[in-house]
Amino acid sequence: MSHAPTFRLAGVMGWPISHSRSPIIHNHWIAQYGLKGSYAPLPVAPENLADAVRGLRALGFAGCNLTIPHKVAAMALVDQVDATARRMGALNTIVVQPDGSLHGFNNDGAGFIQSLLDEQPAWRAETGPAVVLGAGGAARAVVVSLAERGAKEIRLLNRTAAKAQALADEFGIPVRAIPWEQRADALADAALLVNTTNQGMVGQPALDLALDALPKHALVCDVIYTPLETPLLKAAKARGHVTVNGLGMLLNQARPAFNAWFGVMPEITPALRAAIVATF
Ligand code: NAP
Question: Whose CA is closest to 193, among 266, 262, 129, 98?
Fold first, then answer.
């Protein structure tokens, strides 16, 4: 008798986890493609992460996503980490291999790049300088993915200068740390502006940034998705910039994980976008 699972299980480990939109995304695709399976929110306290990750195999899970605060700690708990995730220093996806070993990935950066291409198919990383604001987890994913796509200059600015400098030291060329106070001037001749700080998110003040020096052809991206239009994106739109919000990054990072677990590369449809937006 075969023990191959016909009902595929996956989920997202976080603490807390109730805010995660990943169950809506993956269960939407499971239903859309008529698959047998389920994707669950998995509330896992930090002290239980090692047991929970080990449990994936025993429970027959296809894998899981990881969100705050587990992305960094999970690196030490898997058998193999792919090169991009290692550069980012964090995992957002684990895939249980047929032999039971656990492979770790990070699709956040690929999701970010795809969200730019969805909005502007001709966009290329090497077109001109990129300005990235913030130096947290999202910034690491953005910086690594831009560098991997061939960006020649990434200007990194963070309120706490030492964190931007530490990332610039770690990644080297093309990343250059610039003092936060110079953020308005740093926009001169930029081709891309990305906000990865939490400024402009629901409950937070707007990002304090004058856009005057930003060339009109620059693409402006905010990885925040609540709200879908942050004050930064609103101001950029008013100046005529093409803008990209964080929903595309969220949806695109989920596609390769779903493919690895359920064997279908899913599409991002208007119905899926509407289902997520309905939760805001
Ligand atoms: P994080 O690691 O906590 O980093 C937060 C960043 O915001 C830091 O650079 C921090 O600077 C900066 N910041 C906080 N308060 C600030 C202020 N008053 N002025 C200027 N900068 C300030 O968070 P994260 O995980 O990178 O997430 C950042 C944002 O990205 C969140 O809004 C999150 O929802 C979003 N995100 C979106 C996606 C997606 O799929 N679209 C994925 C991941 C994250 P300091 O170092 O000075 O504290």
Answer: 129
pLDDT digits (tens, 9 = 90+) for 136-181: 999 999 999 999 999 999 999 999 999 999 999 999 999 999 999 9
Q: Measured from the CB, is residue 200 less than 6 Å from ligand 1? A: no
The pLDDT tens digits of the residues spanning 50-59 come to 999 999 999 9
Question: Is residue 226 in contact with ligand 1, taking CB distance under 6 Å?
Answer: no
- Structure token pair of residue 89: 């220093």
| Ligand 1 site, residue 92, Cβ cutoff 6 A | no
Tell me the CA–centroid distance for residue 156 and ligand 1, in Å: 13
Angle, helices 22-32 vs 247-262, to 10°: value is 50
Residues marked active site are found at 71
Q: Does residue 163's CB lie within 6 angstroms of at least one atom of ligand 1?
A: yes
* Mean pLDDT score, 35-48: 98
Instruction: Say if residue 205's pLDDT is above 70.
Output: yes
Report if pTM > 0.85: yes
User: Domains of the chain (ranges plus CATH)?
Assistant: 8-107+250-277 (3.40.50.10860), 121-241 (3.40.50.720)
DSSP class of residue 211 equals -
Q: Which amino acid is at 33?
A: Y
DSSP state of 213: T
Q: How far is the CA of 196 from the centre of ligand 1 (A)?
A: 5
Contact 199, 205 (CB under 8 A): yes
